[in-house]
Description:
Blueprint: H1 3-9, H2 19-54, H3 63-78, H4 83-90, H5 94-102, H6 109-119, H7 123-136, H8 148-160, H9 164-183, H10 185-194
Helix pairs in contact: 2-8, 3-5, 3-7, 4-5, 9-10
Amino acid sequence: MTTAAIQFAAGLPRDGMSPRNRSEVAIMSRIAEQEDRAAKFAARHDFHVQNALASVDPRSTTLSDAAIGREIRELRRAQGRTQKDLARRIGVTGAQLHRYEVGTTRIAASRLIAIANALEIRPDLLIAAGSRQDAAALPVPAAQSDFGDDIVELLEVFMSISDPKQRSALVAVAKMMAERYNHHPQASSGAASEA
């Protein structure tokens, strides 16, 4: 019997690779593609971060400004007030209050006090929201090759979300999932193997 006949009889293709081996080669090829894509994304991201850091204006907004703005918006909404109403009470336009709430404009201390008074809260509650944001900022880990397309896709999706509340919700879900995995790795890996 020829080698080809033996392979045919054994159910092996003529290239000598079993379907399982072919599948493993395809998976390894896909992983290599993902690693390459992740490396390209990391290089592109590093370039943008370096350019951004080189042109950082010390007067530009920070994560704390955005956190204070979100807190103002949440408190305003909880009290059932409109942007227009609160803006009028603190002496700014509705557009300016909107910029405060989304964190695109920094808030002067005197304006922060006026906002706190209008919301009938202590100013330190707003400042605390900003300091919690600073404490919550975690260093971004170096890209690992096993992240592949998943991390690239997650970052692209996250960066496309413009609403701070939706971004916060996504971060909260990710933290919850990470915490669950760290406390119950067997449960998570079992769920993954069932899929």
